[in-house]
User: Which sequence fits this backbone?
């Protein structure tokens, strides 16, 4: 009897395996190699584009995941544009399994206790309670997400109207150049990535909290340390979350599983950084509440606190995670874009000089560097972003069956866009592997191209795009105005990383212009 049951179970298992194999063996969407590391999959994309074998949509073949799953990579611009404009395809994975994983992590770290200790039981964020998702970049494309975006645009408009944002960007840029002069002017140069990280983080600090902190300020140093540490483990955190969405719920909720993961990934350093970051945010909440004017919000945190009074989904963890998401999204990616720009220009002194002449002419005519007066410079900056894409899109999740460009994307499918493929596709750009500084400079004018999708595209595009574009221009223009760039290291290899495409060695000399 027992033998018969065992044989029956085994046969059922074999039938299920065969069923799955047949389903994916004859799946209408092809599979294609997709290494889990960003530096490796960028090479696969480049090679496949050259030989014409890259599908416009495919099931990724990568370890530990295989093509036996409802996960897709989109590579065609037209298809991505259509897909990312659809509400049904603009969600993040906020399943109960993922929330359970986040909840277990919160309890293990003690984030609820930290919030209660600092904010007190009567604070609205405590009463609203935890929601167990990671803020503005997460969750469904619903009313709350739209509210996040409206608050962002409102805060941007208020700060821009008061010239506060411009002032913060200029101050941060000046601080960056001071450090580059001090650390990068000798023959050995310096890798500017960390300096750019500090500069970009300070701009976020100004937007989120309405203040500028000097780089040597003890509070800023601590904040920068927390964010850099969290980002260091961010890829592994996303991997853990992805796995949580694919395994049974009871495993995710098992304390042994959580302890095993954290021991394996050595998350203690990250956990300490997350706790300290939450303490920092909650203290900012207390300070902001003491002088909060509901009729005249000063910054993004003010707007979140005001909205929380009538929006119960804005709990203490959502506010902290939203601010953290802004730091992660706006600092490291832009710092890498600036690093790629410096490495690229360091080998091209003639382009630096042409940019310098244009920048100086703008100063002489307007007493400041204006984007509108620097079309060639803007072309160079956009071309650097196109040639050296830093990240691909975040993962999307389908909430229903949707047909895109004749292809069915099934409900509960996960998918992302390869922005690298779009910006290196010869159908979109001639000689895509070449750096052509005047690619977007036509008849003396800057001509934008929507296929340069640095900040993604569609309903879930980068919410801070405009601030990032302004910041990128100001930082770059001031560097070219103040320095001549040359490279100390000759390597142009891409550093190994799960998510970010960044230069492995980026030592650049910043020689002060006289």
Assistant:
């Amino acid at each position: 009897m027992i033998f018969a049951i065992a044989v029956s179970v085994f046969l059922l298992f074999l039938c299920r395996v065969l069923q799955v194999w047949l389903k994916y063996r004859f799946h209408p969407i092809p599979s294609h190699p997709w290494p889990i590391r960003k530096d490796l999959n960028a090479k696969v994309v480049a090679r496949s584009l050259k030989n014409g074998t890259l599908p416009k949509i495919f099931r990724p073949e990568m370890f530990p995941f295989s093509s036996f799953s409802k996960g897709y990579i989109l590579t065609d611009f037209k298809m991505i544009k259509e897909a990312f404009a659809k509400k049904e395809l603009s969600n993040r994975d906020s399943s109960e399994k993922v929330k359970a994983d986040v909840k277990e992590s919160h309890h293990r770290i003690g984030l609820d206790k930290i919030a209660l200790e600092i904010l007190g039981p009567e604070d609205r964020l405590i009463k609203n309670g935890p929601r167990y998702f990671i803020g503005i970049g997460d969750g469904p494309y619903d009313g709350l997400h739209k509210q996040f975006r409206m608050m962002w645009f409102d805060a941007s408009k208020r700060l821009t109207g008061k010239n506060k944002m411009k002032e913060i960007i200029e101050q941060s840029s000046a601080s960056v150049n001071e450090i580059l002069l001090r650390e990068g002017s000798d023959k050995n140069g310096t890798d500017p990535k960390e300096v750019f990280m500090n500069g970009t983080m300070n701009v976020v600090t100004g937007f989120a909290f309405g203040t500028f902190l000097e780089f040597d300020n003890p509070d800023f140093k601590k904040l920068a340390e927390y964010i850099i540490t969290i980002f260091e483990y961010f890829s592994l955190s996303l991997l853990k979350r992805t796995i949580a969405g694919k395994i049974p719920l009871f495993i995710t909720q098992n304390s042994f599983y959580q302890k095993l993961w954290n021991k394996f990934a050595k998350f203690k350093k990250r956990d300490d950084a997350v706790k300290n970051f939450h303490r920092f945010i909650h203290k900012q909440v207390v300070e902001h509440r003491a002088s909060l004017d509901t009729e005249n919000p000063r910054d993004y945190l003010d707007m979140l606190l005001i909205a929380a009074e009538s929006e119960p989904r804005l709990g203490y963890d959502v506010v902290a995670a939203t601010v953290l998401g802004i730091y992660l999204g706006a600092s490291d990616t832009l710092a890498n874009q600036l690093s790629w720009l410096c490495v690229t220009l360091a080998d091209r002194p003639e382009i630096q000089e042409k940019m310098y002449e244009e920048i100086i002419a703008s100063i002489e005519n307007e007493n400041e560097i204006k984007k509108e007066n620097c079309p060639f410079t803007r072309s160079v900056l956009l071309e650097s972003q196109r040639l050296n894409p830093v990240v691909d899109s975040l993962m999307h999740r389908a909430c229903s069956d949707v047909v895109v460009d004749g292809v069915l994307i099934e409900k509960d499918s996960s998918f992302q866009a390869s922005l690298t493929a779009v910006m290196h596709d010869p159908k979109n750009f001639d000689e895509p592997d070449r750096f052509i500084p005047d690619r977007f400079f036509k008849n003396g004018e800057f001509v934008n191209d929507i296929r340069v999708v640095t900040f993604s595209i569609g309903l879930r595009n980068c919410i801070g795009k405009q601030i990032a574009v302004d910041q990128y221009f100001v930082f770059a223009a001031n560097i070219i105005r103040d320095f001549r760039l040359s490279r100390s290291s000759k390597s142009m290899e891409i550093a190994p990383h799960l998510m970010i495409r960044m230069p492995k060695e980026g030592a650049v000399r910043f020689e002060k212009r006289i």
The chain has one domain: 29-512. The radius of gyration is 24 Å.
